[in-house]
């Protein structure tokens, strides 16, 4: 039943006069009468009776009035709650970022966060976790390295990073400046990791693995401590390469990883989401 019918009924019941009710509601008298008849037809009961030029509630009408008041109170409470929730969350942007991206790309890629204070950023263990969060409407956007294989999701390439075999300077000197990666122990990423898949595809076999990590910053720090060599994205280590703390070893062919932004196709963007997306794409 249309919520406005409850409003019409209560106005007539309180006024005890259809003409007065029509003036308050800005309806014609026939329109008010038609609405009352529609309610009575729906309830299979007479709700009003006319006595001496005024209309009064029947016993069923009194029952209906009690429930109608409760329904309107709940309806108005619902509208208020929805309004407050919408106001609170209208500028909230939920982003899922896979661990590999978060470790070195959160700051440069999410620089628009300086403009938007209501960004919720969640670090996901892997791309599948981020993708599931997007599918479950937990995230508005996801950022990951792995190719997103879903026709339902729009994918935008944010950046392409060169992957580099690198070793600490002290270890490099200990091995007589060898450029052969098989002369060094490998600090490997765990099986299934995007970076590991890259070098497993390049090499017929792996160098001797001395330790395994899932976090690229942990791998970088181990390389800086001269524990072994590893395969890392340029953006994560370029400052250390420039300072001479890390040494780049040859890699053929050149290998790259792509940073991808994902969101549902035909997604309706809020004003804040569109502004964030525009700034994000301009920042890369």
Automatic annotation (TrEMBL):
UniProtKB keywords: DNA-binding, Transcription, Transcription regulation
One Gene Ontology molecular-function label: DNA-binding transcription factor activity
Domain HTH lysR-type span(s) in chain numbering: 1-58
Species name: Propionispira arboris
Name used for this protein in its record: DNA-binding transcriptional regulator, LysR family
InterPro entries (UniProt xref): LysR_HTH_N, LysR_subst-bd, WH-like_DNA-bd_sf, WH_DNA-bd_sf
Upper lineage: Bacteria, Bacillati, Bacillota, Negativicutes, Selenomonadales
Pfam family, one: HTH_1
Top-rank taxon, per record: Bacteria
Matching CDD domains: PBP2_LTTR_substrate
Family: Belongs to the LysR transcriptional regulatory family.
């Amino acid at each position: 039943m249309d919520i406005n019918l409850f409003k019409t009924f209560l106005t007539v019941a309180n006024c005890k006069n259809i003409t007065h009710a029509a003036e308050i509601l800005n309806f014609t008298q026939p329109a008010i009468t038609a609405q009352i008849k529609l309610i009575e037809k729906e309830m299979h009961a007479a709700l009003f009776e006319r006595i001496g030029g005024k209309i009064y509630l029947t016993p069923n009408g009194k029952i209906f009035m009690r429930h109608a008041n409760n329904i309107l109170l709940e309806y108005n409470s619902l509208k208020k709650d929805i309004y407050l929730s919408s106001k609170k969350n209208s500028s909230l942007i939920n982003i899922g970022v896979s661990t590999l991206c978060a470790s070195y790309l959160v700051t440069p890629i999410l620089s628009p966060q300086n403009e938007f204070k209501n960004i919720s950023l969640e670090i996901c263990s892997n791309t599948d976790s981020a993708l599931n969060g997007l599918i479950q409407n937990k995230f508005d956007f996801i950022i990951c390295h792995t190719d997103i294989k879903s026709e339902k999701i729009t994918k935008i390439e944010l950046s392409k990073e060169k992957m580099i075999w690198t070793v600490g300077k002290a270890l490099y000197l200990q091995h007589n400046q060898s450029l052969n990666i098989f002369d060094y122990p490998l600090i490997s990423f765990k099986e299934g990791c995007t970076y590991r898949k890259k070098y497993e595809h390049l090499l017929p076999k792996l160098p001797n693995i001395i330790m395994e990590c899932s976090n690229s910053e942990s791998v970088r720090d181990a390389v800086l401590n001269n524990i072994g060599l590893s395969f890392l994205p340029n953006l994560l280590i370029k400052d250390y390469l420039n300072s001479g703390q890390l040494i780049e070893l040859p890699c053929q062919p050149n290998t790259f990883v792509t940073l991808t932004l994902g969101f549902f196709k035909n997604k309706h963007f809020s004003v804040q989401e569109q502004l964030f997306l525009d700034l994000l794409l301009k920042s890369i």
